[in-house]
Design goal:
With 273 residues, the protein is α/β, with parallel strands linked by helices. It has helices at 4-13, 30-40, 57-64, 79-86, 104-108, 125-135, 148-154, 165-173, 212-223, 230-233, 240-246, 259-271; strands spanning 26-27, 47-51, 68-73, 92-96, 114-119, 139-147, 174-182, 187-188, 195-202. Strand 5 (114-119), helix 6 and strand 6 (139-147) form a beta-alpha-beta unit.
Length: 273
């Protein structure tokens, strides 16, 4: 595990500095990474993928549990240092790859059971989590450190300001809760926001029996004008008859519908095509 001094030494040795374009904020507190590893509830026999492994603070804590760790890092300047740090640990494999464009089947194989544990860069956290839920069923659950506001959106309840299209997408595929908070003081460099740990667990089946493409088409369209009533935000897509068939009051607003109600609307819309 690293502290501020060792992170500074590693960066200096590599002639590097934290890259803002990659959202690099390295964890400089052993207690924090060990806490994350403990909350991830992984150990011998588990397969963990870590995205944005950086200088390996969390990687080492995960390796200490006995789990097999696949550490994915996009920064080719950092990768040689990460490989050097991981070299004494036979249960760590380092891969240089962009998680937003990776061939996940090549990296993970085709069997389920993987756990994503990561300190995700704030700028890619939400799209990456959505992409993994949509297209990487090998990952059964996630414990991800993200900006607090993002975590609150993942877990939000209907009729709240945080509730949105991302919430519905996550609710379709998984359950989500906030497992804890992480202060800005443990990072190098220190971010201007607080972080939170989001615990996301894939459901055995989607929450509603409706094709994802149909559901998310309506959700994206509706939340494109979230302050308008559904009869206005979906006026070009959903007829009054479809609202009636679904049992949805068209005067409600998008943030008032939970995933099951969006599912009913999508089924009625599909039946009317």
């Amino acid at each position: 595990m690293h502290n501020r001094a060792t992170i500074g030494e590693l960066l200096a040795r590599g002639g590097l500095s934290p890259r803002r374009d990659l959202g690099q904020n390295f964890v400089a507190d052993a207690n924090t990474v060990r806490r994350i590893a403990r909350l991830a509830d992984v150990g011998p026999g588990d397969r963990v993928v870590e995205v944005g492994a950086g200088l390996g603070s969390l990687t080492l804590a995960l390796a200490e549990t006995g789990a097999t760790v696949l550490a994915v890092e996009v920064d080719r300047g950092v990768v040689p240092l990460l490989r050097e740090i991981a070299e004494p640990y036979p249960n760590i494999t380092v891969v240089e790859a962009d998680a937003m464009a990776a061939d996940w089947s090549a990296l993970l194989g085709h069997e389920p059971g993987w756990v994503l544990v990561a300190n995700l860069p704030y700028n890619v956290a939400t799209p990456l989590i959505c992409d993994l839920l949509d297209g990487v069923p090998q990952i059964d659950r996630m414990l991800v450190m993200v900006q607090r506001e993002a975590a609150e959106r993942f877990c939000a309840a209907p009729r709240t300001s945080q509730y949105g299209a991302v919430t519905v997408k996550i609710s379709y595929w998984a359950t989500a809760r906030i497992a804890g908070f992480v202060p800005a003081s443990v990072f190098v460099p220190r971010p201007n926001v607080e972080s939170a740990l989001a615990d996301i667990r894939r459901l055995p089946q989607p929450a509603v029996d409706v094709p994802a493409a149909d559901l998310f088409h309506l959700v994206r369209t509706g939340f494109g004008q979230r302050r308008k009533m559904l009869r206005r935000s979906l006026a070009d897509v959903v007829s009054p008859e479809v609202f009636e068939a679904a049992g949805i009051d068209s005067q409600r607003r998008p943030e008032e519908l939970d995933v099951h109600e969006w599912g009913r609307l999508a089924l009625a819309w599909r039946a009317a095509q």
